[in-house]
């Protein structure tokens, strides 16, 4: 397979799904162009890249669009072999995909329910989220067994990219929702430690600094 020559990411600074793709590309050392998408006024150029869902992120590689963040993460790892984000062992790869899907299908929808609700409904959503969080930590400890500061061991991988980005989002939720505690270090100490280690990576800080310029523009426009 020839190395791609032109890589372009369509995204939005407010989207954690897009941030995951930034992180994966930077962990791989892939040079790419970034196009900030105005979610309230999507261009024809962008809509042609994802006519079905019309959502960010979309990675365009040599003219071929790849939508949906989890699919993009797996594509990036398979396309650029340096600095692998997935282990070689087929069983571990399967387990990592399983728990990645668990985060997407179980945890993310409940996290949105937390921020969109209040009172007893919000309380129930928080309880459900923390239950899923505990299931995730127990499952990763049982199924993956890698030693190091990250889920994938000494170096971050796809689960770390997903969890680390989600961790930043959960901190934001805690800041804007008084009294809500989602990052419970007593309940999920290892995952909290992993997310803290991920937050200290240079690629995470550099991405945040780069995206901040678009956030500031958005705030000025509102």
UniProtKB/TrEMBL annotation:
The keyword Transferase applies. It is found in: Cytoplasm, Cytosol. It comes from the Eukaryota. PROSITE patterns: GLUTAREDOXIN_2, GST_CTER, GST_NTER. Residues 5-84 form the GST N-terminal domain. Keywords: Cytoplasm, Transferase. InterPro entries: Glutathione-S-Trfase_C-like, Glutathione-S-Trfase_C_sf, Glutathione_S-Trfase, Glutathione_S-Trfase_N, GST_C_Tau, Omega/Tau-like, Thioredoxin-like_sf. One of its GO terms (molecular function) is glutathione transferase activity. GO terms for cellular component: cytosol. It holds the Pfam family GST_N. Residues 89-222 form the GST C-terminal domain. GO terms for biological process: glutathione metabolic process. Its EC number is 2.5.1.18. Its main location: cytoplasm. It catalyses: RX + glutathione = an S-substituted glutathione + a halide anion + H(+). Is involved in the conjugation of reduced glutathione to a wide number of exogenous and endogenous hydrophobic electrophiles. Belongs to the GST superfamily. This is Glutathione S-transferase.
């Amino acid at each position: 397979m020839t190395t791609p020559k032109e890589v372009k990411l369509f995204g939005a600074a407010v989207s954690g799904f897009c941030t995951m793709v930034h992180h994966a590309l930077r962990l791989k050392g892939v040079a790419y162009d970034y196009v900030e998408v105005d979610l309230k006024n999507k261009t024809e150029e962008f809509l042609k890249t994802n006519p079905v869902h019309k959502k960010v992120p979309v990675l365009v590689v040599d003219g071929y669009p790849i939508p949906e963040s989890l699919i993009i993460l797996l594509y990036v790892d398979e396309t650029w072999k340096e600095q692998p984000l997935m282990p070689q062992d087929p069983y571990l790869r399967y387990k990592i995909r399983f728990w990645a899907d668990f985060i997407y299908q179980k945890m993310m929808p409940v996290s949105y329910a937390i921020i969109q609700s209040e009172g007893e409904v919000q309380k129930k959503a928080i309880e459900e989220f923390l239950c899923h969080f505990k299931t995730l930590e127990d499952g990763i400890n049982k199924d993956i067994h890698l030693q190091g500061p990250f889920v994938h061991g000494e170096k971050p991988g796809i689960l770390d990219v997903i969890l680390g980005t989600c961790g930043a989002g959960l901190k934001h939720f805690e800041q804007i929702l008084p009294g809500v505690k989602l990052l419970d270090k007593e309940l999920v100490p290892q995952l909290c430690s992993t997310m803290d280690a991920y937050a200290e990576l240079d690629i995470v800080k550099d991405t945040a600094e780069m995206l901040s310029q678009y956030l500031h523009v958005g705030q000025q426009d509102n």
